[in-house]
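Researcher: Please translate sequence to structure tokens.
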Amino acid sequence: EQFARLADGRFVFARHLKPLGEWESDYVAVAGMFHHVPYYWGGKSVQGLDCSGLVQLALEACGIACPRDSDLQERDLGVDLRLNDLDGLKRGDLVFWDGHAGIMTDGATLLHANGHHMLTVAEPLREAVDRIARSYGQVTSIKVQVAGGGAQLAGSPSCAPTAETFFSGMLESITATRLVSAGAKFTDGRRPSRAA
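Model: Translation complete:
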């Protein structure tokens, strides 16, 4: 059928619905669907969204629990990468500033909703870093989403949470420190940084 009836009697396009528990597999692709959506502080819809709303919508569409605000996202998501390694970024890495967040679409391009453009845009990371530094400061952390805790690498078959969780956002600092001490590497060969 073309339409599905909601419990309140309204209708939506049936092809816009998914069964509960069925997740998207690529949060970068989900975030890309919001390209050119207007920037709206506190927004979290196609009418307008802010940086942390974009990150939250993309990750939660993949079954990854994600806080609403960028400071909590920075604290709770992923594992820290080395701050000075802007050349080593990969698709799906999360970049944070004080009060701002974005998602890398490849090794050089940041997708983020921002007040400078008043849109969700994909732009060269170095341009964003330089511009944001002039007004708001330097990058505060770079995170990689890793397997477990509901978070999978972007290239994984599924981003849905699994029973084989190893990393936990709440324990990311402790885990990252242990991984560095043990000489651990991510599946793409990068190493996590020491937790601050």
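Researcher: Any highlights?
Model: The longest helix spans residues 125-135.
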